[in-house]
Amino acid sequence: MTVSGVDPLVYTTRWRVRSYEIDRNGHVNNAVYLSYAEAVTVEHAELSGYGRAWAEAHGGGWVVRRSQVEHLRPAVLGDELELTVRVELVRGVRGLRRTLISRLPDREPVAEVLTEWVWVRSSDGRPARVPEELVEVAAGVTAATLRDRGRPGRRGRPDPGSRGEGRPTPDPSLTPGPGP
User: Fold this and answer.
1) DSSP 30-44
2) Phi first, then psi: what are they for 55, rounded to 5°?
3) Contact 88, 9 (CB under 8 A)
4) Chain segment 1-24, per-residue pLDDT in tens
5) Collapsing DSSP states into helix, strand and coil, what is residue 71?
6) Which residues, other chains included, contact 149 with Cβ-Cβ below 8 Å and sequence gap of 6+?
7) pTM for the whole thing?
8) Using CA atoms, how far apart are residues 30 and 131, in angstroms rounded to an integer?
9) All structural domains of the chain
10) Who contacts 9 (Cβ-Cβ below 8 Å, separation ≥6)?
């Protein structure tokens, strides 16, 4: 089901790396990949008809609970990047999206971001069940994600943050430690 004609489960766009995204090492700053993942998710939601207005009409909205970035190779000023975001799970109060960022024209992967979102009520900011319409839209990918949990991922590892029941496992690498 699509509200606007844009696939609500997969979206691809292209962006060029801008000067203010570059760190002193001459490549895209690590934190920028999180911004990319969030921005492409918001763009996708808006274009597919499930953006801010839809969320407000359903009494809630998404907030990021956890993000995990795998850095694969650097992107530099002027690189054209292809960003593909995929909904992998919508269940209970959660949504899971994976964003692959690749450099063009060779399509070499630059980074992969796994983001866990939580649906919260607008009235009090507390987690609430995702509206059934979204659960139904994502039923196929949710079933596939749950079926594949525990199997090795694309790089021979289980997907991060899973323990087989659709609940995240705390990842020690995401726990804030002492400052730099």
Assistant:
1) HHHHHHHHHHHHHHH
2) -60, -45
3) no
4) 455 689 999 999 999 999 999 999
5) strand
6) 158, 159, 162, 163, 164, 166
7) 0.81
8) 33
9) 10-157 (3.10.129.10)
10) 86, 87, 137, 138, 141
